[in-house]
């Protein structure tokens, strides 16, 4: 059997995180959620995926909620690389000697 895609693992990982956060076994967590333990196991392993409404309902039964947020793209690597390009070689060497790893060194 091939590797599961990230989409196949997200819901199960969230449920497993919720379960471990509450300090519960699969059996106890499944009881709390009102589902069978084999169903929870299948979700956590990625063999089955709950729909988003089902995932939200299960998390609510555990006293948790899933919050998603859209934010601006974090482009600090691009900004740092642009700044590094403005440095002269002596400054780059001085930074390297102090243990800094420059973005241009990774290329």
Characterize the structure shown:
The protein has two domains: about 5-60, Orthogonal Bundle (434 Repressor (Amino-terminal Domain)); about 75-105, no CATH class. With about 110 residues, it is mostly helical. The mean pLDDT is about 90. Helix content is about 65%, strand content about 0%. The chain is elongated and about 65 Å long. Helix 1 (about 5-20) packs across helix 3 and helix 2 (about 25-35) crosses helix 3 (about 35-45).
In percent, how much strand structure appears in the residues? Answer: under 5%
Structural category is mainly alpha
CATH architecture of the largest domain, by name, is Orthogonal Bundle
What is the name of the CATH class of the largest domain?
Answer: Mainly Alpha
Query: Any low-confidence stretches, pLDDT <50, length ≥5?
Result: none
Average pLDDT confidence is 90
Annotated CATH topology of the largest domain? 434 Repressor (Amino-terminal Domain)
Distance between the termini: 35 Å
- DSSP E strands, number: 0
Q: What's the shape?
A: elongated
Topology order in helix (H) and strand (E) letters: HHHHHHH
- State the major sheet: none
Number of helices: 7
Helix content: 55-70%
Q: By CATH's scheme, which homologous superfamily of the largest domain applies?
A: lambda repressor-like DNA-binding domains
- Overall number of domains: 2
Cα Rg: 22 Å
């Amino acid at each position: 059997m091939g590797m599961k895609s990230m989409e196949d693992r997200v819901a199960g990982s969230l449920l497993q995180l919720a379960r471990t956060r509450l300090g519960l076994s699969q059996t106890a967590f499944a009881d709390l959620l009102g589902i069978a333990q084999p169903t929870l196991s299948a979700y956590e392993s990625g063999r089955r995926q709950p729909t988003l409404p089902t995932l939200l309902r299960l998390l609510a039964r555990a006293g948790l909620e899933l919050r998603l947020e859209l934010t601006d793209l974090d482009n600090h690597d691009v900004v740092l690389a642009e700044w590094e390009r403005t440095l002269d070689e002596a400054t780059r060497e001085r930074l390297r000697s102090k243990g800094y790893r420059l973005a241009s060194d990774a290329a």
